[in-house]
Amino acid sequence: MVAVPPTPADMSISSLDREIANYDRLNMTAAPRYSDLLRERGERGGLKFNITLELIQKAARERRFLSYGEVALANGVEWQTAYRQIALHLGDLVSWSHKRGLPMISAIIVDKPNISSGAMEDSALRGFINAAKRLGAFEGGDERAFLKDEQKEVFRRLADWDTEAL
Prior knowledge:
57% helix, globular, mainly alpha, two-stranded parallel ribbon
């Protein structure tokens, strides 16, 4: 008898982490289950992919930046809860969307004081660049210029993107 793996919804967060790490290590990130695992992990704690995707698309259409707090608010999650989970949620969302040929969609989410400029604080930029390196999207160079290029791509490509198709 062949063992059937548990559905991602039935897995603990540590099991999700382990299986995602195995897919990453084996370079099997194109597998459909990998996307399902990322989506499930990214939605733990109340932050939902579809809500965040729709918020990002709306902002892209308006050519404006979002704050992390806006992401939490749109998801109906208090900031005191969301701040612990938002980096993982956005990281999984970026990995998930990258597999679909999209730019790094979290590029337009910045700290509230930088909402007019789109700049990222050093710690946020470090996380963004680390995600880009992990995905093979950034191989070195000017990190802030890379961020600006990704922001332009989000504004250009996501304005007409069909979130319903995902």
